[in-house]
Amino acid sequence: MSDQQHARPGRRRHLREPRRRGTVWSRGIATAVLQVLLAAALLFHELLPSASGLASLVATGLPWLAVPAVLLLLLGLLRRSATATLAFLLPAAAWAWIFWPRLSEEPVPRDDLTVVQHNVSDENRDISGTVRVLLDAGPDVVVLEEVTPPLVDQYTRAFGDALPHREVRGTVGVWSALPLRDAEKVDLRPDGAGPGWNRGMRVTVLPGEGAPGVTVYAVHLPSTRLAPAGLDVAARNQSIELLAEALAADDSDAVIVAGDLNATLDDPALAPVTALVTEPRHGFGLTFPAAFPMVPIDHVLARGAAVTELRTLDRTGSDHLPVAAAVDLPWS
Fold this sequence. Notes:
alpha+beta; elongated; five-stranded mixed beta sheet; transmembrane helix; transmembrane; 10 helices; Endo/exonuclease/phosphatase; Deoxyribonuclease I, Chain A; Vancomycin resistance protein VanJ; catalytic activity
């Protein structure tokens, strides 16, 4: 046997097992840096610049930042990088610090008032099926968005005697088992919106004999859109400021805000509103899109009363899931 034949197996072993560059600590530095950035985005997303909607974009996908963190962990394991693998602990700890309390705390529902909120979609033709899902929650008050004029009477007939009281302004409306009074439009129009853009209203619900009225705001804030320069949030943010001004000027004993806010509670742009009304943080509350919910943008918030539980309901013909809130009134 020649020397070349003796050398061939060794040469093959060398080809099969290429030498790795660096050590387990020096490999994967770039992956580790990305993990650090993910942890920083989780912990300090409120400090991100609002230009191009960056802060809103990160806040909207905040719980989903766990996905790239896990993918980077797998990459670190494949590269046998101790640095990249250990760096995963940073976003993991940050994610747990933010979301574990929301997942571990069980709500204690107290429901003097049950409020159901739903963006029904103006393309939803299953009115009876939608109403069936909403009524199954046993609501005292139902707040709907995207109720175009041709749909108002259809929903009124479908709710029937269960919710005989109704007030509608523009494309938002309130149907109630309890009497309503003092309904008025709330002007949330951003720049460029015409006089026909009516997506806010205020109405007083009368919960019982001698009890104070509960002011309910039905709102549908402008959508955000991906644009070449980033996430376009200008119109929505203007409407948020207008809503906050209306809430700050409202001296009602109890206020409830229900609607499609097109923003998550983690979004710093919503802070002017969440400084005045609050919502419990139990679970993720994902409502959009209904086919595969990824973001919680449908809300019921309160002041002078407490939303003790917020849960999603079954899917309807809309692209949003409805939510039901248990509201505790302080004087009951």
